[in-house]
Amino acid sequence: MDIDIGAGIGASRPQPGPSGRRRKLRALYAAGTVAAVATTAGAVALAGSASAASTLRAAAEAQSRYMGTELTGNMVNNSTITNLAGTQFDMVTPGNEMKWDTTEPSNGSYNFGPGDGIVNFAQSHNMRVRGHNLVWHSQLPGWVSSLPLSQVKGVMESHITTEVTHYKGKIYAWDVVNEPLNEDGSYRQDVFYNAFGGGEAYIADAIKTAHAADPNAKLYLNDYNIEGENSKSNAMYTLAQQLLQQGVPLGGIGLESHFIVGQVPSSMQANMQRFAALGLDVAVTELDDRIPLPASSGNLQQQATDYGNIVKWCLSVSRCVGVSQWGVGDADSWIPGTFSGYGAATMYDSNYQPKPAYNSTLTAWGGSSSGGGGGGGGGGSTGALHAVGAGKCLDDPNSTTTLGTQQQIYTCNGAANQTWTHNSSNELTL
C-alpha cells in the first residue's frame, strides 16, 4: 500500500496502538536512496538497523536533538570530509563564511558566495545550518572600526538586515552577537558597545534587527568559558534576564565548549538548566577537547568520557537542542595552530577514523557503535524514517492496518509504530 508521508502533518497525535500489525510502503524507497520519499516529505532519511543509531545524526534525531559540525573553506571540496559530515551530522556551522570580513569586506559591498556554498552543501545532505555570526569584535573589517561612532548603529543594522534577509528561511539559528563578554563578565568595549553608549543596548538592537529580518530564525548569544557556573556565565545569565525583561526576542544561549581534556566543568549541566529555566534554548556550539601531544591512550579515554558526559547532560536538559563539534576531524581542527603542543581535539583522528570519543558520543545519544563511525551509504535496513528538516519521524497512527490510513510526521520516540524495515522486496514494513 502506498503511503502519503506528507499527510497528517500538524494533526493531533493518536495514541500508539498494538505493535504486531504490519503495513507496507511499496516502491517508494529504492535501496541506498531516499529520493522518491524526499519528493513528498522534504528531506527524509532511513536510519539503518544495527541502526536506529549507527550514526551520530540518527541517534541524536531519535532523541529530538541534533549532532552538528563546522565546515569551512576547502573542506567542502574534500570528499572524505563531506562524505563523513553528510553521514554523521545533521547540522552545519560555517566556520568563516558568514562572518563580517567575508560577507561585507567593504562598506555596502556584499559577498555571499562562500556562505552560499556551505548552505548548498547542507541542503544537499539534509542538514540544517547555524548562521555564525552577525556581530563580533573579531574578524571585523577595518572600515567598520574606523567609522565615526555616530554611523556605527546604522551600518550594523544594515549589515544584519542584509545578511539575514539573504539567508531567510535557510538558517535554523543565528549567533547574532558572538563573544560579547570579557573573562570577568564585563562587556567587551568594542566599536558597537561604544557606539550605543555601553551596556546591553547594542546587543538588544542587534537581536531585534535580526528578528525583523527573519522572525522564524532562533537568535542566540554565543560565548566561550560560560559552560560552567562562574563569573562570566553569571554575567551572561544576568544579560539574558535583562534582554528578556525588555522583550528582546533572544532565543538561546550558545556554549562554545572549547575544553582541555579532563577539565570539563562539573557544573555544566546545572548551568544549562538555569538558562533553560529562563525559557531559552541551550546549545553546545563549538565543542572540542584538546589533548597534550602526543595523545596518550589514557587521555583519549578521558576525552571519550568528556564527550559522553556533555551529551548526557544535554539530554538531561529539555531545552538543550543539540551538540556541535568544531571541525570534523583532527586534520582540520583549529587547535594545533592556536594552542601550541595541543591537538587530537575531535572525535575523528587525522585520517578521519573514529576515536573512543566517537563511540562514547554515539552511545550517550542512545546509539550503537557497531556501525563503525565512518561515511558511506551503508548501515542496516531497520529503523526510524526521519524527516530530517523537521527533526521528526514518519509515524503510523495506532499502528493501524486500515486501508487508506494517512501517515504523519511526528516527534521521534522510538516506538514500534515508527520502526520501519526495508526488505528484499523493496518494501517498507512496520
TrEMBL record:
Residues 1-21 are annotated as: Disordered. It comes from the Bacteria. The chain crosses the membrane at residues 27-48. It catalyses: Endohydrolysis of (1->4)-beta-D-xylosidic linkages in xylans. PROSITE patterns: GH10_2 (PS51760), RICIN_B_LECTIN (PS50231). Keywords: Carbohydrate metabolism, Glycosidase, Hydrolase, Membrane, Polysaccharide degradation, Signal, Transmembrane, Transmembrane helix, Xylan degradation. It is an enzyme of class 3 (hydrolase). Residues 50-364 form the GH10 domain. GO terms for biological process: xylan catabolic process. InterPro entries: GH (IPR017853), GH10 (IPR044846), GH10_dom (IPR001000), Ricin_B-like_lectins (IPR035992), Ricin_B_lectin (IPR000772). Gene3D superfamilies: 2.80.10.50, Glycosidases (3.20.20.80). Pfam families: Glyco_hydro_10, Ricin_B_lectin. Its EC number is 3.2.1.8. GO terms for molecular function: endo-1,4-beta-xylanase activity. Belongs to the glycosyl hydrolase 10 (cellulase F) family. This is Beta-xylanase.
